[in-house]
Amino acid sequence: MRINYTQELEPLGTIAPLSLLREHLDEPFLGGGQMSNVQSMSRPYGDRRQGPHLLRDDLNGTPMEGRGPLQPHLLYIGGEDHHLRIPAMSALRDHGFRVTAAGTGEPAPFEQAGINYRRFHFDRFVSPLADWAAVKSISKILVEVQPDLAQSFDTKPSVFLPLAARSTPGVLVIRTINGRAFLYSSRSPTALTLRPVYRALHKIAARTAAATVFEIGDDLAFFERHGMAGKKPVLIPGAGVDVDGFDRALTSGPSPSQLRKELGLGDAEVVITVTRMTRQKGIPALLKAAAKVHELRPDVRFLLVGPRESEGPLAVTQAEIERHAPYVKAIGPRSDIPSLLSLADVFAFPTEYREGVPRVLLEAALAGVPIVTTTMPGCAEVIRDGWNGFLVPPGAPRMLAAKILDLLGNREKGRVMAGRAAERVRKEFSLENVVACQAALYRDLIDRARGSRFEDDKNTREQRGRTCGAP
């Protein structure tokens, strides 16, 4: 049954070949179910081999019915940009959940936020051995942490987690589909060959997952069409944007004049993009569009913000970018994105990638920057062409340049569309709404697993129904 719980830097990669993973699906990942000494010493809630604490009687034999409400334990699993979900984790704690995070990035941001963090590794690109090692690492984390629920984000973790959870009965697994990534963004021989493997792995994962969350309806329909949606497909649009946090960052960050001086932009009109510098993100098309804009408005500067060196064979080369100097400036990854967006006259997001709802598109809207993006499904969830921004076909530099010039030449039109985009994001894509939907889903899953209801106060029940619809 489909459920609509209505009111994004998606790792690139493909999954290990099916034969390598299926070979071990029915084997314990930790050697016959034995836990290491390290695991046995890290049980803050007693003998963790008994299973998640909300879904069983306690060690003294007190039945669940005889105890008061407990704090559900949630494991949040993602990739190298998992720190971007810290505001969501903090908000979920406010909803009464105990949160542990697992990801591939540095632990410092999680430590600063007071979130317990487990680090593991996987390769974003094709690497069967690394993929299998990642499945075993996640299985080990599940045994050590013993959460009540575990939710995965990004392409590979959303296959790895359900496979790993087969050795940890009782954990309620939630996959999050943040788009269809490399395999459906590329028509390379590798991508075409691995698509059947991807579908087969997701069919296996669907048997373990208690629910599958989709950011966009296009992906939900695709998964249903191919029998991969699982027992409980749920639509929660986007990952949400922390509106208050973004506003605070705008206030506390450097001023546009400071940044213009630092970056040598002077009084130039600025077109900005924030993304990974890869071909699938449409950077070659943007560079061609920049050249066409430069012919008509030579004072315009294009600012490219995001990593390049880490993007492997799909990255645009430094030479490609330098051919468009001095009107294109690549400044690499930055931590002051809200302030950079606020200095821009146009935000161009030329993606050709099948991602979910791009977080940076939501942030650009909050910054009040007029938007030009592509008709890819995740972008079309946010932008309605001609009403709150412009949509152009992916890989169409002439049309992209024309819309950029339109916004630069008609500031009033851009201002009106940017205002509509900001209003829509605050109303429909706020972190508050997304987290309320997630919390409602978690409690519904635990309720079903336990066969009883948590004691929700009246306000919580009303908020659940208003924000997410009936579960």
From TrEMBL:
Q: Name one Pfam family in it.
A: Glyco_trans_4_4
Q: Give the stretches traversing the membrane.
A: none
**Protein's UniProt keywords contain Ubl conjugation:** no
Residue ranges of domain Glycosyl transferase family in the record: 260-421
Q: Does the keyword DNA damage apply?
A: no
Report the GO molecular function annotations: glycosyltransferase activity
What EC number(s) does the entry state? 2.4.-.-
* Keywords on record: Glycosyltransferase, Transferase
Region (Disordered) location: 31-57
Q: Matching Gene3D superfamilies, A to Z? A: Glycogen Phosphorylase B
Q: Residue ranges of the Glycosyltransferase subfamily 4-like N-terminal domain?
A: 90-237
Compositional bias ranges of the Basic and acidic residues kind:
45-57
Under InterPro entries, the record lists: Glyco_trans_1 (IPR001296), Glyco_trans_4-like_N (IPR028098)
**UniProt name for this protein:** Glycosyltransferase
- Organism source for this protein? Mesorhizobium australafricanum
